[in-house]
Amino acid sequence: MRTSLNVPEDVLDAFDETWETQGLDSRSRAVREAMQEYIERHTRLEEIEGDAVAAVAFDYEHTLVIEELHTVQHDFEEVISTTQHMHRGDWCLETVFCSGPASRVRELVYQLRDFDAVGRVNVMFLRPV
């Protein structure tokens, strides 16, 4: 199946450089692998049930979203145990360490992903409790 995508040139250049360096046969193959990894990562997020321990790392443009992020963190204080924050100019990197119902961790991840000023949200389940 053929498809087309709108991708910023700098992202496409970095993607091409990466798959070529890794010795893959084609961009199509690299895209298929990236899609499979995406599916696996998000399927894992959906499959975890019961209590879980997780690290949620995300980056964001500070001035555009900080108040809203503080509100979200307060809304999820029953699962957020610890936060770690780092500034790099107007961008921030934050990690929240969570413990509690996996369903609440999922809700937190989904809310963070809803913000346009949040670049990436990565989740690592450390272990189901």
TrEMBL record:
Ranges where the Transcription factor NikR nickel binding C-terminal domain occurs = 53-124
Name the source organism. Answer: Halovenus aranensis
Query: Pfam families attached here?
Result: NikR_C, RHH_1
Please give the PANTHER family that the UniProt record associates with this protein: NICKEL-RESPONSIVE REGULATOR
Q: Which InterPro entries match?
A: Acetolactate_synth/TF_NikR_C (IPR027271), ACT-like_dom_sf (IPR045865), Arc_rbn_hlx_hlx (IPR013321), CopG (IPR002145), CopG/NikR_regulator (IPR050192), Ribbon_hlx_hlx (IPR010985), TF_NikR_Ni-bd_C (IPR014864)
Q: Which family does it belong to?
A: Belongs to the transcriptional regulatory CopG/NikR family.
What CDD domains does the entry give?
A: RHH_NikR_HicB-like
Which residues, if any, are the signal sequence?
none
Q: Which GO terms describe its molecular function?
A: DNA binding
Q: Which residues form the Ribbon-helix-helix protein CopG domain?
A: 1-41
Q: Please provide the Gene Ontology terms (biological process) for this protein.
A: regulation of DNA-templated transcription
Q: What keywords appear on the UniProt entry?
A: DNA-binding, Transcription, Transcription regulation
Full protein name = CopG family transcriptional regulator, nickel-responsive regulator
Q: Does the keyword Glycoprotein apply?
A: no
